[in-house]
From TrEMBL:
It comes from Rhodovulum sulfidophilum (Rhodobacter sulfidophilus). SUPFAM superfamilies: vWA-like. This is DUF1194 domain-containing protein. InterPro entries: DUF1194, vWFA_dom_sf. The lineage of its organism: Bacteria, Pseudomonadati, Pseudomonadota, Alphaproteobacteria, Rhodobacterales. It comes from the Bacteria.
Length: 282
């Protein structure tokens, strides 16, 4: 038999329920208003910062493309991230940045995997001293890079890097894409057109192949894979003025390799002429 259980609070709810609901709704509206206001202030501050740097000449516009594809496990992704973070805290890298004609560079960083799998880790940021470099290092260090499981698409990564460069607020004397991977193109749209478009615009594409990829068993297998990986980077990835590869001898060498690579990229190549506008933004 069904019956209605009465509570000593029924009368209170009946008389004061609408008032309680109204107060609750009012509190939520106020919380939302404060959140919108805080977000508006944050966006205004970011817009003001972007306006302050828009068109600012820099020695280098540097895009870092970090491999987060399925072939990179969690430990390798963490080491990759730590390598770039450590490099921006390195006094030698800071000296290289400050020794340029303008003493500042612009940096953006993203993770990539499949053809449409890209995630910005660090939006365009000016590095003009230790504090700014440390902020970039902390942002890279603290970024959560989830494994992207739709293959390794260099073409998609280079197209995304080109879009980042086109949207850069800076005016660089040089532009460099620094792409890291332990694999070769195995999915996605063609790599060659994306590469050619960047090279035609005067952008340098440098590569850092991470050797010993795919866990191939045996010394002969590793050597064969490493040769394939190096050949792919040299023949199909890098290009443009003073392009080079900086191989990392496995995850254990990644931190040192990143430092070597950034020092070489930030340093002024002999063949780059003086003056701004050395590459064509499209």
């Amino acid at each position: 038999m069904e019956f209605a259980r009465r509570s000593r609070y029924d009368g209170v709810i009946a008389t004061q329920g609408p008032l309680i609901l109204a107060r609750s709704f009012s509190i939520r509206i106020e919380a939302m208003r404060r959140l919108v206001l805080a977000l508006g202030l944050l966006l205004s501050a970011q817009a003001a910062e972007a306006d302050a740097t828009r068109g600012l000449p820099v020695d280098l516009e540097l895009v870092l493309a970090l491999d987060a594809s399925a072939s990179m496990d969690a430990e390798e992704r963490a080491i990759e991230r730590a390598g770039f973070a450590a490099a921006f805290r390195d006094p030698a890298v800071l000296r290289a940045i400050r020794s340029g004609p303008l003493g500042r560079i612009g940096v953006a960083c993203f993770a990539w995997g499949g053809d449409t799998e890209q995630r910005v880790l660090v939006a365009w940021t000016l590095i003009d001293g230790p504090a700014a470099a440390a902020a970039v290092a902390s942002a890279i260090d603290g970024a959560r890079i989830v494994r992207m499981r739709r293959g390794t698409a260099f073409g998609g990564a280079l197209r995304f890097a080109g879009a980042l460069l086109a949207a850069s607020p800076f005016e660089g004397r040089r532009a460099v894409v620094n792409i890291t991977s332990d694999g070769i193109q195995n999915v996605g749209s063609a790599l060659a057109p994306a590469r050619a478009g960047l090279i035609e615009a005067g952008v340098t594409i440098n590569g850092m192949p991470i050797l010993d990829g795919l866990g191939t068993a045996g010394s002969a297998g590793r050597q064969a894979w490493n040769a394939t990986l190096l050949g792919f980077f040299e023949g199909s990835v890098i290009g443009g003025p003073a392009a080079f590869i900086e191989p990392a001898g496995g995850a254990e060498d990644l931190v040192a390799a990143v430092r070597r690579k950034l020092l070489r990229e930030i340093g002024e190549p002999a063949l780059v002429a003086e003056g701004p506008g050395r590459w064509s933004r499209r």
